[in-house]
User: Fold this.
Amino acid sequence: MDYKITDAGIIVSEDDLDLDETLDCGQAFRWRKIASDYECTYQGRFLNDDLVVSQVKKGEFLFHDISEADFLGKWKDYFDFDTDYSELKKSFSEDETLSRACSFAGGIRLLRQDSWECLISFIISQNNNIPRIKGIIDRLCGMYGGRFPEAGELSEETPDNLAPLRSGFRAKYICDAAAKTASGVTDLAGIAAMPIEEARTELKKISGVGPKVAECVLLFGMYRTEAFPVDVWIKRVLSEYYPGGFPEYLKENAGIAQQYLFHYIRNLPEK
DNA sequence: CGCCAGGACGCCC
DNA sequence: GGGCGTCATGGC
Assistant:
């Protein structure tokens, strides 16, 4: 990744980035495509910072109206620009299925998101579909002026108060996660630093957090690249392409591999 | 109408 | 410990 400063913002040169594949692939739910003039433009927010990012030409992206300090202090990390994805994909290409997934969607990156937002987002995701997950999170943020609520704020709510979200049976889970996080019973920063098995156990103490949601929080909210969420799509990949189990040598970055496979299987033409 | 969605829980055996 | 019905909601 290289970048330069302009009047319009920061111009980033990066071949291993596709905005659709990275911002609209089910790892984050608060990015919206607002234009598609050249390639595309997304608007979204991480914690309390808004960003508009556009692809201006092949391999070049404009991070609108931000300073170099904002870019270096926040967005460079969020987009995982310090990781060399071409190197990563080189190791993935030893596996035939993964190699095909990488050529299909080579612009996926693992975003380094906020653990609290991820916890709530993936509690909402259970037995749900991506458009509806986005809608529920939209309405949640709408209750707080368009930003994602802090744990302390959300812990003031009851499942009844959350009825306008239309999150169904998940409302009581949201409240439990907020209560435990706000009170310190759940310490997300502490969990992020734990050995992964211990971290899983700790996350699953929250009502509504089972194996799949815990794994998503670890991968998407704590950058634990060995975490490997298995949903119905990945189950399909595993049974069709890895009947003998997922390759051991990919374990360290299994979660990132999983992102490529998830996108690949979901977008395969109907057989 | 029934089926499914980035599942987890409670109850049963 | 594994199997199964249930849990809201909305798109298809």
About this structure: The mean pLDDT of chain A is 94.
